[in-house]
Amino acid sequence: MKMPAMLVLGALASLTIAAPTANAAPCSASGLASTASGVLAQASSYLDAHPGANDALTNAGSSGDAEGAVRSYFTAHPGEFMDLKNIARPLTSLRGQCGMSVTPAQLSALFDALSS
């Protein structure tokens, strides 16, 4: 996964409408993957339709203060912040329900381990 995509996932997870499939236990790896994939698909569509937010998240990785750059953009665009927060809600709910969260660094480490 490229760094901008990891930033998007991190931003969405930290902001904290898909649900886990009926067959996936919500607190399992497959439940998390199902929920995350739905959230990421919705986020992708949303960001395609909102190029300012897309650019802010994409370019944050090249900023010395990625968190500050993202915060600054969404402070100036609170409607977009709320939209993305609502898109991320299933991950937030899962974190509360299961007592777990996955950081972008953890996902990156997993992908690195699986690609070796």
Can you lay out the helices and strands and say which pair or pack?
Blueprint: H1 3-15, H2 29-49, H3 51-60, H4 66-76, H5 78-98, H6 104-115
Helix pairs in contact: 1-3, 1-6, 2-5, 3-4
Structure report:
- The chain has 116 residues and is an all-alpha fold.
- It has one domain.
- 76% of the residues lie in helices and 0% in strands.
- The protein is built from six helices and no strands.
- Helix 1 packs antiparallel against helix 6 and helix 3 runs antiparallel to helix 4.
- The two termini are 14 Å apart.
In short:
The chain has 116 residues and is mainly alpha-helical.
Fill in the keyword field for this structure.
single chain; 116 residues; 6 helices; globular
Oligomeric state, counting identical vs distinct chains: single chain
Shape designation: globular
Note the main sheet: none
Helix content: over 70%
Total number of strands: 0
**Category by helix and strand content:** mainly alpha
Question: Whole-Å distance between the termini?
Answer: 14 Å
Q: Report the β-strand fraction as a percent range.
A: under 5%
Number of domains: 1
How many helices? The count is 6
Q: How do the helices and strands follow one another from N- to C-terminus?
A: HHHHHH
Spans of at least 5 consecutive residues with low confidence? 1-6, 14-22
**On the 0-100 scale, what is the average pLDDT?**
78
Using the CA coordinates, give the radius of gyration: 14 Å
